[in-house]
Specification:
With 192 residues, the protein is α+β, with helices and mostly antiparallel strands. The protein is built from nine helices and six strands, in the order αβααββααβααββαα. It starts with a helix and ends with a helix.
Length: 192
C-alpha cells in the first residue's frame, strides 16, 4: 500500500492528490489509507538521505522537499538559472489571485496596460491557468491561480492570502463597462 501511495504521489507532481481520489483509485478502506499516509510521511522524515517529505495542503497530499533543504533550494531558485518574476508579473499575478476567475480584459482595466504578455509568462511558469470562459460575447478566457501558486507561496488555500484594501475596480463592473463601451463603439461605427 505504501509503495502504491508513493507512486501515485510521485506521478501526481506538484498538484498532489486529493484524499478522496486516493480512496477511489486504491479501492481500500479510508482508515488504512490514512494510516499508510502517516507511515509514508514518517518514512520520508526519518530517512536522512531522502530530500522528500509528504505534506498535506487542505485536502490534498503533496511530495515536497524537506525543510532542512530550504536554503539550498532557495539559493537555486534565486540564482540566475531561474527566471525571476518582474514587478509587472507579480502585479498581474496578485490581481488574478485576488480577483479570480478573471478575464484578460479585466486585468488590463485594473492595471491600465495590456497584460497579455504577463499572463502568457505566468501560464508558462504554471502560476496561473485557464479555468473556463466568461458567458459573454467572444467567450473570453477566465484565469485563476494553480496549486503550484499555493505551494510556491506556502499557502494551503486562497484564504491564506493576506487581506488587501479593496481594488479600485470591481471586476464585474469593469467587465460590464468594457462590454458596454465596445458595443457602443461598434454601434457608432456602423452608423457612419
Amino acid at each position: 500500500m505504501i509503495r502504491k501511495l508513493a507512486a501515485i504521489l510521485f506521478v501526481a507532481g506538484e498538484e498532489g492528490v486529493n484524499f478522496q481520489d486516493l480512496v477511489t483509485v486504491l479501492e481500500e478502506d479510508p482508515e488504512l489509507i490514512r494510516e499508510s499516509l502517516k507511515e509514508l510521511a514518517h518514512h520520508y522524515r526519518s530517512d536522512t538521505f531522502s530530500p522528500i517529505e509528504l505534506v498535506q495542503f487542505g485536502e490534498r497530499y503533496h511530495l515536497t522537499t524537506q525543510p532542512d533543504l530550504e536554503k539550498v533550494v532557495e539559493q537555486f531558485a534565486q540564482s540566475s538559472l531561474q527566471q525571476k518574476l518582474t514587478r509587472a508579473a507579480i502585479e498581474t499575478l496578485a490581481i488574478v489571485a485576488y480577483r479570480q476567475p478573471i478575464t484578460r480584459m479585466t486585468v488590463d482595466e485594473i492595471r491600465g496596460v495590456s497584460s497579455q504578455a504577463m499572463l502568457h509568462k505566468l501560464l508558462g511558469r504554471d502560476l496561473i491557468k485557464e479555468i473556463g470562459h466568461l458567458d459573454a460575447p467572444g467567450r473570453p478566457i477566465l484565469y485563476g491561480v494553480t496549486d503550484y501558486f499555493l505551494n510556491y507561496f506556502g499557502l494551503t488555500s486562497l484564504d491564506d492570502l493576506p487581506p488587501i484594501e479593496e481594488l479600485a475596480l470591481n471586476t464585474q463592473t469593469a467587465t460590464e463597462e468594457l462590454f458596454t463601451r465596445k458595443k457602443w463603439e461598434i454601434d457608432s461605427t456602423e452608423t457612419l
